[in-house]
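Service request form, structural biology core

Requester: graduate student, group of Dr. S.
Request type: structure prediction, single chain
Budget code: on file
Notes: please return the result as C-alpha coordinates.

Sequence provided:
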Amino acid sequence: MNILVLNGSPRPNGSTKRMINAFCEGALSSGNKVDVVDVCSKNINGCTACEYCHTKGKGACIQKDDMQEVYELLNNAEMLVIASPIYYHGISGQLKCAIDRFYSAAYPTKPPHLKKVAMILSSGASNMYDGALFSFQGDFLDYLGLKNMGVFTAHGAENNSASKLNELKAFGESLK
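Core staff response, request fulfilled:
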Protein backbone atom coordinates (compact mmCIF):
# COMPACT_ATOMS: atom_id res chain seq x y z
CA MET A 1 0.00 0.00 0.00
CA ASN A 2 1.19 3.53 -0.77
CA ILE A 3 1.01 5.67 2.37
CA LEU A 4 1.45 9.43 2.50
CA VAL A 5 2.29 10.97 5.88
CA LEU A 6 1.92 14.72 6.26
CA ASN A 7 4.04 15.84 9.22
CA GLY A 8 2.84 19.15 10.64
CA SER A 9 5.57 19.50 13.26
CA PRO A 10 8.29 22.12 12.87
CA ARG A 11 10.55 20.13 15.23
CA PRO A 12 12.69 17.66 13.27
CA ASN A 13 13.26 15.48 16.36
CA GLY A 14 10.13 16.24 18.37
CA SER A 15 7.48 13.90 19.74
CA THR A 16 5.38 13.97 16.58
CA LYS A 17 8.34 13.01 14.39
CA ARG A 18 9.30 10.16 16.73
CA MET A 19 5.75 8.84 16.55
CA ILE A 20 5.85 9.09 12.75
CA ASN A 21 9.16 7.23 12.67
CA ALA A 22 7.74 4.39 14.79
CA PHE A 23 4.69 4.15 12.50
CA CYS A 24 6.90 4.18 9.39
CA GLU A 25 9.18 1.48 10.77
CA GLY A 26 6.20 -0.81 11.23
CA ALA A 27 4.57 0.08 7.91
CA LEU A 28 7.77 -0.45 5.94
CA SER A 29 8.41 -3.80 7.64
CA SER A 30 5.02 -4.96 6.31
CA GLY A 31 5.96 -4.12 2.73
CA ASN A 32 4.21 -0.78 2.45
CA LYS A 33 5.66 2.22 0.63
CA VAL A 34 5.72 5.31 2.85
CA ASP A 35 6.38 8.91 1.84
CA VAL A 36 6.70 11.51 4.60
CA VAL A 37 6.35 15.19 3.76
CA ASP A 38 7.56 17.57 6.46
CA VAL A 39 5.22 20.41 5.53
CA CYS A 40 6.96 22.88 7.86
CA SER A 41 10.11 22.70 5.74
CA LYS A 42 8.17 23.26 2.53
CA ASN A 43 6.96 26.44 0.87
CA ILE A 44 3.23 25.77 0.98
CA ASN A 45 0.96 28.79 0.83
CA GLY A 46 -2.58 28.93 2.09
CA CYS A 47 -5.54 28.62 -0.25
CA THR A 48 -6.44 31.99 -1.77
CA ALA A 49 -10.05 30.98 -2.53
CA CYS A 50 -9.59 32.15 -6.11
CA GLU A 51 -11.66 29.20 -7.44
CA TYR A 52 -9.21 28.63 -10.31
CA CYS A 53 -9.10 24.92 -9.44
CA HIS A 54 -12.88 24.64 -9.73
CA THR A 55 -13.08 26.56 -12.99
CA LYS A 56 -10.28 26.98 -15.55
CA GLY A 57 -7.87 24.74 -13.63
CA LYS A 58 -10.16 21.69 -13.68
CA GLY A 59 -8.77 20.54 -10.34
CA ALA A 60 -5.27 22.04 -10.66
CA CYS A 61 -4.26 24.77 -8.22
CA ILE A 62 -3.00 28.00 -9.73
CA GLN A 63 -0.27 28.28 -7.09
CA LYS A 64 2.96 26.60 -8.11
CA ASP A 65 4.67 26.06 -4.77
CA ASP A 66 5.82 22.93 -2.92
CA MET A 67 2.24 21.71 -2.66
CA GLN A 68 2.76 20.34 -6.17
CA GLU A 69 4.93 17.61 -4.58
CA VAL A 70 2.11 16.76 -2.16
CA TYR A 71 -0.44 16.64 -4.98
CA GLU A 72 1.68 14.12 -6.89
CA LEU A 73 2.13 11.90 -3.84
CA LEU A 74 -1.54 12.27 -2.90
CA ASN A 75 -2.59 11.18 -6.38
CA ASN A 76 -0.86 7.82 -5.83
CA ALA A 77 -1.59 7.38 -2.11
CA GLU A 78 -3.96 4.72 -0.87
CA MET A 79 -3.75 5.92 2.72
CA LEU A 80 -3.15 9.31 4.26
CA VAL A 81 -1.72 9.89 7.73
CA ILE A 82 -2.13 13.35 9.23
CA ALA A 83 0.41 13.94 12.01
CA SER A 84 0.71 17.08 14.11
CA PRO A 85 1.43 18.56 17.47
CA ILE A 86 -1.60 20.27 18.92
CA TYR A 87 -1.58 24.07 18.88
CA TYR A 88 -4.62 25.73 20.43
CA HIS A 89 -6.73 22.54 20.18
CA GLY A 90 -5.94 22.03 16.50
CA ILE A 91 -3.27 20.96 14.07
CA SER A 92 -0.33 23.23 13.29
CA GLY A 93 -0.90 26.18 10.97
CA GLN A 94 1.58 24.86 8.44
CA LEU A 95 -0.34 21.61 8.15
CA LYS A 96 -3.64 23.48 8.01
CA CYS A 97 -2.36 25.38 4.93
CA ALA A 98 -1.60 22.07 3.20
CA ILE A 99 -4.96 20.57 4.11
CA ASP A 100 -6.82 23.67 2.91
CA ARG A 101 -5.15 23.14 -0.46
CA PHE A 102 -6.84 19.73 -0.72
CA TYR A 103 -9.73 21.84 -2.05
CA SER A 104 -8.25 21.48 -5.52
CA ALA A 105 -7.05 17.89 -5.06
CA ALA A 106 -10.60 16.77 -4.26
CA TYR A 107 -12.10 18.37 -7.39
CA PRO A 108 -13.88 17.09 -9.37
CA THR A 109 -13.33 13.85 -7.41
CA LYS A 110 -11.05 12.79 -4.57
CA PRO A 111 -7.63 11.34 -5.42
CA PRO A 112 -8.30 8.08 -7.27
CA HIS A 113 -6.55 5.58 -4.97
CA LEU A 114 -7.10 7.26 -1.61
CA LYS A 115 -9.30 5.08 0.60
CA LYS A 116 -7.98 5.30 4.19
CA VAL A 117 -6.89 7.89 6.72
CA ALA A 118 -5.34 7.94 10.18
CA MET A 119 -4.24 10.70 12.52
CA ILE A 120 -1.29 10.97 14.91
CA LEU A 121 -1.43 13.78 17.48
CA SER A 122 0.91 14.93 20.23
CA SER A 123 -0.01 17.34 23.00
CA GLY A 124 0.80 18.42 26.52
CA ALA A 125 -2.59 17.47 27.98
CA SER A 126 -5.35 14.97 27.24
CA ASN A 127 -8.15 17.47 26.62
CA MET A 128 -6.60 19.33 23.69
CA TYR A 129 -7.79 17.38 20.64
CA ASP A 130 -11.27 18.77 19.86
CA GLY A 131 -10.29 21.01 16.92
CA ALA A 132 -8.08 18.38 15.29
CA LEU A 133 -10.75 15.70 15.68
CA PHE A 134 -13.41 18.00 14.23
CA SER A 135 -11.23 18.50 11.14
CA PHE A 136 -10.47 14.77 10.89
CA GLN A 137 -14.17 13.89 11.00
CA GLY A 138 -15.40 16.65 8.69
CA ASP A 139 -12.58 16.87 6.17
CA PHE A 140 -11.47 13.29 5.80
CA LEU A 141 -14.20 10.94 6.98
CA ASP A 142 -17.28 12.89 5.92
CA TYR A 143 -16.20 15.03 2.94
CA LEU A 144 -13.66 12.68 1.35
CA GLY A 145 -15.40 9.52 2.58
CA LEU A 146 -12.19 7.85 3.73
CA LYS A 147 -12.10 4.82 6.02
CA ASN A 148 -11.07 5.70 9.58
CA MET A 149 -7.96 3.68 10.42
CA GLY A 150 -7.61 5.29 13.83
CA VAL A 151 -6.55 8.33 15.79
CA PHE A 152 -3.43 7.92 17.88
CA THR A 153 -2.76 10.47 20.58
CA ALA A 154 0.04 11.02 23.06
CA HIS A 155 0.02 13.64 25.77
CA GLY A 156 2.37 14.57 28.57
CA ALA A 157 4.46 11.60 29.69
CA GLU A 158 3.01 9.40 26.91
CA ASN A 159 5.03 11.41 24.39
CA ASN A 160 8.12 9.40 23.46
CA SER A 161 7.13 6.55 25.78
CA ALA A 162 8.09 3.06 24.67
CA SER A 163 4.47 1.91 24.93
CA LYS A 164 3.18 4.68 22.63
CA LEU A 165 5.96 4.16 20.07
CA ASN A 166 5.33 0.40 20.14
CA GLU A 167 1.59 1.02 19.59
CA LEU A 168 2.35 3.08 16.49
CA LYS A 169 4.87 0.57 15.20
CA ALA A 170 2.31 -2.23 15.65
CA PHE A 171 -0.30 -0.15 13.82
CA GLY A 172 2.10 0.30 10.90
CA GLU A 173 2.89 -3.43 10.91
CA SER A 174 -0.82 -4.25 10.76
CA LEU A 175 -1.30 -2.45 7.44
CA LYS A 176 -1.22 -4.63 4.37
